[in-house]
Amino acid sequence: MAEDLLRIEHLSVDYHVGAGTFRALTDVSLSMPAGRVVGIVGETGCGKSTLGHAIPRLLPQPPAQVRSGKVFFQGTDLLKLPKWRMPSVRGTGIGMIFQEPINSLNPAFRVGDQIAEAVQIRRLREHGRQPARKADVQGFDYSKREMPKAADVVTGPFVPPNLTETLKQRPPPISKDLQKEVLDFLHLVRINDPERIISLFPHELSGGMRQRIMIAMALSGKPSLLIADEPTSALDVTIQAQVLTLMKELMDEVSTSILFISHDLGVIAEMADDVGVMYAGHMVEFGPVAEIFESPRHPYTKSLIRSIPNKYKEDGVLPSLSGSVPNLSRLPNGCTFHPRCPMVRDVCRKDPEPPLTDLPPGPAGLVHRSACYFPEEVASLP
Fold first, then answer.
1. How confident is the model at residue 153 (pLDDT cuts 50, 70, 90)?
2. Long-range interactions of 329-333: CB distance < 8 A, separation 24+
């Protein structure tokens, strides 16, 4: 069997803040072969985004701290790499699409310049070079563009703008071959009239267009793994459908794998091959998306699926999941889901958290895991 593209083993992450220690992730494990889409689903506060940011080591430290675990990407444990090695993994190995594109794009630069920077960084790495300083990219040092302090703006003397100095702050024109590659990536994400789009600033684009720009930037590094952290939650339903269709089409065109994070079960059912269900920082179920939706083996997964509005067409009260995700600084004893579980038993309250355990193979013979003491009883519930 080929080695997994991504393999996470017993990953635990804490947040240390003034109110105490929050167990954001506890003993999370999953494997992801190349060429597949793995969905991560759960309520807000279950640890989905923490998992996505922990893989390329984008968590803020402090307050975040990796308590234990391993993250293998293409056979290398990323948690053991020195910090100076991580930029060579991000972008060209692992790309990331964030939830709100307007916060990810630099408002001071045209989108063409920003995509060109990503392309140039990838070109340098393909030739065995690392852009040690941002001045290596287009000869332009973005780090020198510091915002003035508020006191200087209010009380400082008026200084007439110097046109020469202002022009020095602008990136140099993109070379023809670089511009051609930028346009190719914009064509790839189905953007019409890319020659005009590259001259625009982020605020001049719609939310759907900005998200396409972010996808183009992520793909410009030609990553093996693309982590999408709720990339459609800020978009309306029509644009959301277009972006999801685009991402599915691009998988085959650019040969990348996707870790897709969402709280929307409908989106996960549409996108994913496998799905991991998270609750209170724990992975409570993992398996093929069809088997998870047809025969869930954890009561939390069962409750989520029953709460989908289009699941029940008849009139009456829509099934819902009572309660809320527990405070991660004061998790309940035993199974963390037992205060909300409709089939809770004494063993769920008293015994330790059940581990994620392999279940007997289903009809397709694929791996299905559940962290419940009574998975077969869950499957038999209506």
1. very low
2. 329/19, 329/20, 329/21, 329/22, 329/23, 331/23, 331/280, 331/281
